[in-house]
């Protein structure tokens, strides 16, 4: 299989690599960059566990080839905290409001929530539900996830936090 050289930005860091033409973005992030916070679930665009931000918009990284991300700015769940290894307001709210159980869907939920809160500082519950409607959770029943995102929105608005540090 042919290989291609790509350059992109991942969580604020410039990355250069050679990738097989058909390597998916989720495999590139997890296997090449070892950013295993992005989960591979269904691997055909249904569950949302693999969501990342690409130039600020949530995308399913299992449906993209790594070469398609050339030149883009990617933010994974690891990039949502204020610094590597630290959690931010959004993640903290998920912990506090019990917005996760097994945690498998959580990276995708956090990415969907981050994308929403950049657009709408104080979204309605309906807007929150709409924003996470493409992300499947088999554990929580979604109620606590909606509450967690609402809690994070209120705290971020009170602190005037506009977005993740690597958002650009
Ligand atoms: S792993 Fe990509 S949508 Fe399920
Ligand atoms: S917390 Fe288990 S799938 Fe959502």
Work out the helicity level. Answer: 25-40%
Q: How big a fraction of the residues is strand?
A: 15-25%
What's the number of domains?
Answer: 2
Q: How do the helices and strands follow one another from N- to C-terminus?
A: EEHEEEHHHH
CATH architecture of the largest domain: Roll
Enumerate the distinct ligands.
FE2/S2 (inorganic) cluster
Provide the low-confidence segments as ranges. none
Q: What's the rounded overall pLDDT mean? A: 94
- Side by side, the strands of the main sheet go 2-1-5-3-4
Strand tally, please? 5
Intertermini distance? 34 Å
Radius of gyration computed on alpha carbons: 15 Å
CATH superfamily of the largest domain, please?
Beta-grasp domain
What CATH calls the topology of the largest domain is Ubiquitin-like (UB roll)
Q: At the first level of CATH, what is the class of the largest domain?
A: Alpha Beta
Q: Could you describe the 3D structure shown?
A:
The protein is an alpha+beta fold and 168 residues long. It contains 5 helices and 5 strands. The chain has helices at residues 25-32, 89-96, 106-119, 125-131, 143-159; strands at residues 3-10, 13-20, 51-54, 57-60, 73-75. The chain has a 5-stranded mixed beta sheet with strand order 2-1-5-3-4, with helices on one face. α2 packs across α5 (143-159). The longest helix has 17 residues, at 143-159. The protein is globular. Bound molecules: FE2/S2 (inorganic) cluster (2 copies). Residues 40-43, 45-50, 60, 62 line the site of one FE2/S2 (inorganic) cluster (FES).
